[in-house]
Amino acid sequence: MLTHAEATTAYTRRFEDTLAYIDANLEGDLSVGALSQIANFSKFHFHRQFAAYVGVPVARYVQLMRLRRAAHRLASRESCPVIDAAFDAGFDSPEAFSRAFKRSFGMTPIAFRQHPNWQIWSANFIVPYRSRKLNMQVRIVDFAVTRVAALEHVGPIGLVNESVRKFVDWHRQSGQPPLLSSRAFAVPHSNPDTTPGDEFRCDISAEIHAPVAPNAYGVRELVIPGGRCAVVRHAGSTDHIGETIYPIYRDWLPGSGEELRDHSLFFHYLSAFSDVAAQQWQTDIYIPLT
């Protein structure tokens, strides 16, 4: 069993190796799936681990690294056309490249080539994820296999409540036990912080004790796999649940010696379908472990 210091060092080394790989392979496949394999981390958790460790999402970091390379080319080779720098950085047009470059450097590519200002780059390169530092109370539990009725929400996270209402409508006529007596879960299949709104997917679900009959709502029966999980309780509105999620990956996981299982995290809503105000909600966050 590794000590806390040894576990933290090993975790850091895996990320530093991944960052070195990105720097050496800016022309290659630097997707979340590809990089999670390089780092030997679960693809279901890697995007959150990366953002927690580095301070920005994978796609933004890769873009910054490509912009940095483009900036070096512009500053060192006067003959390098902006359009070539744009395509080398993975942009479809010089206009999109110029917008992204100005957002990162505070000046246009042409202005930077004339007067390179690396101080701006250093100051604005990465802004760490500013979640509050938590006094985390992490529990390790054995979660039992759980059958649920689930409605898949697809679309912006701001529209989740519409899907919840649809699920409630189904449940009222389903013959299942009342929602107040059933455990309520959500299983996100993507991270709303890094996923385009129309691509966000999440299963809204509740525990069942009888089969789900065919229905017009699109509700189906699923199983939340059992196994070891790290559990942290989030207090308050779920609008800010990321402030509890990211410190798990950033502060607890590196020194824990634990490895993540290939399954999405999931939420157990302890206050769902009750009269408790959102500000007083309690939600358990489950992080599947090997």
Task: Please tag this protein with its features.
single chain, Multidrug-efflux Transporter 1 Regulator Bmrr, Chain A, alpha+beta, Arc Repressor Mutant, subunit A, 2 domains, 290 residues, eight-stranded antiparallel beta sheet
Plain-language structure description:
It is a single chain. The chain is an alpha+beta fold. The chain folds into two domains: 4-124, Arc Repressor Mutant, subunit A, CATH 1.10.10; 139-288, Alpha-Beta Barrel (Multidrug-efflux Transporter 1 Regulator Bmrr, Chain A). The protein is built from ten helices and eight strands. It has helices at 4-24, 32-39, 46-54, 58-76, 82-88, 94-105, 109-114, 118-124, 160-172, 242-256, and strands at 139-143, 146-154, 184-188, 201-207, 220-224, 227-235, 266-269, 282-288. It is globular, with a radius of gyration of 22 Å. Mean pLDDT is 88; it is low at 126-134.
N-C termini distance: 15 Å
Enumerate the strands of the largest sheet in spatial order, edge to edge or round the barrel: 1-6-8-7-3-4-2-5
The helix content is 40-55%
> How many distinct folded domains?
2
Radius of gyration, Cα only, in angstroms?
Answer: 22 Å
Task: Describe how the helices and strands are arranged.
Elements: H1 4-24, H2 32-39, H3 46-54, H4 58-76, H5 82-88, H6 94-105, H7 109-114, H8 118-124, E1 139-143, E2 146-154, H9 160-172, E3 184-188, E4 201-207, E5 220-224, E6 227-235, H10 242-256, E7 266-269, E8 282-288
Antiparallel strand pairs: 1-6, 2-4, 2-5, 3-4, 3-7, 6-8, 7-8
